[in-house]
Write a structure and sequence with these properties.
11 helices; 2 domains; alpha/beta; Nucleotidyltransferase, domain 5; 11 strands; five-stranded mixed sheet
Length: 311
């Protein structure tokens, strides 16, 4: 059986697998995203890969870029061990999805901010000689400006309106429609979803639509999200000693182009003298580029590489 190479982009909304055959043929598939608190990430990743890859298939190299990076060295070792134990794998690279996005979108110095269920940011500076990871930190204590964060604030405003504690009537109405429930059961409905973090994150799109319709509370949530994104960009520029050419690329599945969020980002960028660079590249594009690299280069401090020990 000819060998293959495998690129994986994992975000809160999905697990995307690209397989490259020895003749260069590219095949891509997508599977459901990871929910913290269910399986371990190692178990989840192996399950998704087994849907597409025979364990006996020789894999020359696998690059897994993930929003749900292991939180400790022990968890990373567990993921590495699980992948090597399950698959006929020679070389493995593990990294954040912000790294793959940076590889795809930035050629000079700059920062990529990925707005998905959470937030991930990676900055490259000093003529592409240094690298810095910023923001993120997970939905429990961080990820400010991400889809879960926006969706949670929107739901909080909806529930405040229900109780008469302020909030937004428009957000309450939309939340009940979106989650198919009555105001009195909204909180219970959300808490009992099998993937509550993902479900709350999907409500971010509704919050943004309500803001575009002129609701002041929803607009204030969008404004806060934009401010958080710009704070990350400004911090990255300072860390990297960036000048006027320092690129800021904001992408991800939760960043709708052309709408109120995008417009407000561009407006605030002008005020703060940030250069917003538009890119159509996807994180999976970046993983495929990493797959072609012989060594991690500038990303060496933030990519974990492993070679199977000879028997």
């Amino acid at each position: 059986m000819p060998s293959i190479r495998v690129a994986v982009d994992q975000g809160g909304s999905g697990f995307r697998i690209a397989r490259i055959a020895s003749d260069g043929t590219l095949t891509t598939t997508a599977h459901p995203g990871f929910t913290p608190g269910e399986d371990s990430f190692s178990t989840y990743a192996v399950k998704q890969l087994l849907q597409d890859i025979d364990p006996t298939q020789k894999i020359d190299k696998l690059v897994l870029a993930s929003a749900a990076q292991p939180a400790s060295d022990a968890e990373r070792e567990a993921l590495k061990d699980a992948l090597f134990a399950t698959f006929n794998l020679t070389e493995l690279w593990l990294c954040s999805d912000a790294i793959s996005a940076s590889q795809a979108a930035i050629r000079g110095d700059g920062v990529v901010i990925i707005m998905g269920t959470g937030i991930a940011a990676l900055a490259v500076g000093n003529s592409r000689t240094t690298v810095h990871e910023l923001s993120g930190d997970g939905y429990l204590i961080g990820d400010e400006g991400g889809a879960y964060w926006i969706g949670r604030l929107g739901l909080n405003s909806a529930l405040r309106e229900k109780d008469g504690r302020g909030g937004s009537a428009a957000l309450l109405k939309r939340a009940c429609e979106f989650f198919d429930t009555d105001p009195d059961y909204l909180a219970d409905r959300v808490h009992n979803f099998p993937r509550p973090v993902h479900s709350i994150a999907t409500f971010a799109k509704e919050v943004i639509e309500i803001a575009e319709a002129g609701d002041e509370v929803a607009i204030s949530i969008v404004d806060k999200a934009v401010d958080e994104l710009m704070q990350v960009a400004l911090a990255a520029k300072r860390l990297c000693g960036g000048n006027e050419d320092f690129e800021v690329v904001i992408g991800g599945g939760a960043f709708p182009r052309g709408g109120i969020l995008h417009t407000k980002v561009l407006e605030l960028a002008k005020v703060t003298k940030l250069y917003i660079s538009e890119s159509s590249a996807t994180p999976l594009d970046g993983v495929l580029e990493l797959l072609d690299l012989p060594i991690p280069g500038v990303f060496a401090p933030v990519i974990h590489t492993y070679i199977k020990s000879p028997h």
